[in-house]
Prior knowledge:
Layout: E1 7-8, E2 11-12, H1 23-26, E3 30-32, E4 39-41, E5 50-52, E6 59-62, H2 67-87, E7 91-95, E8 98-102, H3 104-113, H4 117-146, H5 154-164, H6 170-184, E9 189-192, H7 194-212, H8 215-229
Parallel strand pairs: 1-4
Antiparallel strand pairs: 2-5, 3-4, 5-6, 7-8, 7-9
Helix pairs in contact: 2-4, 2-7, 3-4, 4-5
The structure holds zinc ion.
Amino acid sequence: xxxDNVLMAAMYNGTQTQVNPPIDTVQSKLTACADCDLLLADLxxxxxxxxxxxxxxxxxxxxxxxxxxxxxxxxxxGLLLLIPAMGMxxxxxxxxxxxxxxxxxxxxLALGNDGxxxxxxxxxxxTLVAPFLNLWLVFAVGVVLQMGGAPPWLPALLRLxxxxxxxxxPEVFLLAVLxxxxxxxxxxxxxxxxxxxxxxxxxxxxxxxxTLIDQHELWQTYEKNxxxxx
Length: 230
Ligand SMILES: [Zn+2]
């Protein structure tokens, strides 16, 4: 390790301060800049600030609110919204006196019944399975960390969540719904259902989880809890 390169990551946007503490005080907690690989001290970032790399200016971390608490709260709301979003009518199509309600689950099954099993599987994974797994994992991690626990299986959940959330794409499905509405508006009367409102709220919830929760802080809380258990 080139200890000459160890600097303190305390160059906050706006304040532009940089401090180089003695190396032995920071050696135990180091992080590397994702852009230029400079080794830096891993310091807590105040809420509303952002630490940047003193060499290349790459953003390292943003100070965010209590990530474990927000994980538990936002994922609880998301899980509650998931059931009506998946099961209740997304859209109602009315044409020539007939009215037909469609939910996401019915849309996936209809795709499969029409022979588009590959598309149906992809839609099911990205809009049903991955969002559910993502919310459940965020909930489990948030609750355990908030209660001060650090079980040995928690890192596996954090790592799994890292992969699962790449597949959770409810916003793509919503885009497809909007395209369908535009295409079908002259052929049938389209009415938004309860499922659509729940789905939009679920998408916002997922978006808040992505923007407000700092994965790095979750790992730090895990380490802190584990140190307290010893
Ligand atoms: Zn850098």
